Amino acid sequence: MTVWDRVAGSDAIKGVAHQIERGEVAHAWLFLGPAGSGKAQAAVALAAAVNCTEDPMRGCGRCSACLRTLRRRYPDVHHIAPEGPLIPVAAVREQILPEASRSAFEGRFKVFVIEEADRMNDEAQNALLKTLEEPQPDVVFVLLSDHEEDVLETVQSRCRIVRLEPVSEERIVELLVQEGAPATDALLAARASDGDYQRARAIALDDAVRERRRFWLGMPRRLASAVDALDAASEVTAAAKEAVKAHELAQKDEIATLAEAMGEGRGTAAARNALARRHKRELRRIEEEVLGEALQVLASFYRDVAVLRAGGHDAVVNLDALDELEGWAAAVEIWTDGLMQIVSRCIEARAALTHNANALLQLEAVLLDAARLAPAPARVAAAW
User: Fold this and answer.
1) In Å, how far from its chain's centre is CA 50?
2) Sheet of 28-32, strands arranged across
């Protein structure tokens, strides 16, 4: 088993693994593909493989270096992500360029994974260019993007480009069953993940994620009035804050581990500051992910009702709520147009969260619209 076995990837990802195994470590990679195509997981696998101590360039997945990299706790792997709508030029100049000029602390390579690289503005991308042109020999950049057109051609020309495709439902089910998930749970997770294997894995195997999903699925039946909608919005934001608190505990362990490994010696301030910045980004990302998760599940619920009305039983996502969905589909007082308006509002609100929109206001607006456009049918609400 290697770190690549954890990536539910395509032939393109297998090609990357073979290149790394042969020692063909490009100084800069650009992984392009839609959400769910495995870009982030492939980048982490690459970072683990090049620094693996037991099986260098393959990545054993068992040694300390691999495990810490997979958990995003390895000191020589730096994850850069948007803070709000952009990765500004200041982030490149203050977080990336100085660190890229220093030698690796522990591993053979210092790896920078730049998530949503298309959200670097032109100034930020241009600031990165010189480093991409003349990198240190032990520095590797992995840029990830859903939007090829927003990555400057000058940046693309300095990277080895890998184009990825979404993972098929069948492949996700196969992998989840291999990890011990029952076949019915695996199929449900694959449908609900929209082709994102890591999301599917969480739905199938993470108790907290499964519990939250059940909570989101139960929300439409509670939306009978504006008061219900406002209460539900508060509960969603509270769930997001609980997830953040749980992650903060894990971060404290990481801080203690870093302190033990590095001590209080000279030169540790930069590593500590980088860790603090990463932790701040992680907490924001966790909150954003949970809120987005709620909106995604809500959108899928109302979509499923419309799909059932159109006779598309095979396309239902939330198979574990089929009886309730059929009750909604049979409710003549709910208009299909209203259902699709709610789906659109959920999608818009989810996108707005990445642009620093007020989360509570966004949720309140969506749920108020849901209560107005498609209040829970009386017989459905009564059944629960």
Assistant:
1) 23
2) 77-80, 110-114, 139-145, 28-32, 160-163
Closest to 106 (Cα-Cα) out of 144, 66, 143, 59: 66
Distance CA 175, CA 181 (A): 9
Strand, helix or coil for residue 197: helix
In this structure, what token pair is assigned to residue 144? 């990830």
Burial pattern 340-365, b for ≥16 Cβ within 10 A else e, equals ebbbebbeebbebbeeebebeebbbb
Q: Tell me which amino acid residue 287 is.
A: E
Q: What is the C-alpha to C-alpha distance for residues 70 and 48, in angstroms, rounded to an integer?
A: 7
Q: Which two tokens stand for residue 303?
A: 């979509």
Q: What's this model's pTM, rounded to 2 decimal places? A: 0.75
Cβ atoms of residues 55 and 29 within 8 Å? no
Residue 58: pLDDT band by 50, 70, 90 thresholds?
Answer: very high
- Mapping DSSP onto H, E and C, the string for 214-267 reads HHHHCCHHHCCCHHHHHHHHHHHHHHHHHHHHHHHHHHHHHHHHHHHHHCCCCC
Query: Per-residue confidence at 279, pLDDT binned at 50, 70, 90?
Result: confident
* DSSP letter, residue 315: G
pLDDT digits (tens, 9 = 90+) for 287-311: 888 998 999 999 999 999 999 999 9
Phi, psi for 278 (deg, rounded to 5)? -65, -40
pLDDT digits (tens, 9 = 90+) for 62-85: 999 999 999 888 889 999 888 767
